[in-house]
Amino acid sequence: MNYKLSPFYIFLFIFSFGTKAQTTNDLLYEKKEFIVKSDTLLYRIMYPENFSESNQYPLVLFLHGAGERGNDNNTQLTHGSSLFASPENRLNYPAIVVFPQCPKNDYWANLSADRTVKPISFKFQNGGEPTKSLKLVMLLLDELLTKPYAKKNQIYVMGLSMGGMGTFEILSRRPTTFAAAIPICGGANPNTTKKYALNTELWIFHGAQDDVVNPQLSIEMVSSILAAGGTPNFTLFGKDNHNSWDSTFAEPNLLPWLFTRIKK
């Protein structure tokens, strides 16, 4: 006998599954505040199972996209947090994973944007003062790196969309810190790549049909890194629009590649 679920029960199943995943993330990622004088950075942090300060662990910094900005210290977990929180990945890749949250009136990268056109037209600065949010992230990172349990030769950064742009920017501002970086559907000023091209291994991702952040931005960054002597990995998903992070997180070699990058 065949049974057909009503749309209501299908919705209930999907909602229940999503709620369970979010609840798991809420439990695993501790809510924290990093305060510097009158400024506060909200962030979530997940420690490995059976965490011990006498051991050392890789550290992953994840920068979310513009849609996850806010002040709830929760929305930044929307994309990417489940990847690191799965039981299998926690077992195989024990790491300290940090998800800061950018407020709605700020960005990770120092840029201006013309949103009247599609894809959005971005103008990236080369140098200058970092945004307040990125400055706080770098100060938080500096503090975390003073901890004896942070493995200094396995510090990683990744991010999507606005966070992909922030990933490129933090590399240019901390060019000797990261063993590897994964910018997803991002971009930056190509002139900044010479600062880190020889110091950090990169795997850059974008969707060929992205109508929000032009894939040409990632192509230009790859070309500039190559010109500076770097050897980046680059994956362009032919059928993906802006949400190429879904295909990125489904890439089976993503975490094996990331956690085997060790800074010399």
- The CATH level-2 architecture is identified as 3-Layer(aba) Sandwich
Strand content is 15-25%
| Terminus-to-terminus distance | 62 Å
User: What is the overall pLDDT average?
Assistant: 93
Alpha-carbon Rg, integer: 19 Å
**Helical proportion, percent range:** 25-40%
Physical arrangement of strands within the biggest beta sheet: 1-2-4-3-7-8-9-10
Structural class comes to alpha/beta
Low-confidence stretches: none
Q: What CATH first level would be assigned? A: Alpha Beta
Name the helix and strand elements from N-terminus to C-terminus, one letter apiece: HEEEHHEEEHEHEEHEHH
Largest sheet: 8 strands, mixed
Number of helices: 8
**CATH homology superfamily name:** Alpha/Beta hydrolase fold, catalytic domain
Could you please say which CATH topology applies here? Rossmann fold
Shape summary: globular
What is the number of domains?
Answer: 1
Report on this model:
- Pfam families: Esterase (PF00756).
- The chain has a single domain, classed as Rossmann fold (3-Layer(aba) Sandwich).
- Helix content is 31%, strand content 24%.
- The protein has eight helices and ten strands.
- The strands form two sheets. The chain has an eight-stranded mixed sheet with strand order 1-2-4-3-7-8-9-10, with helices on both faces. A two-stranded antiparallel sheet has the order 5-6.
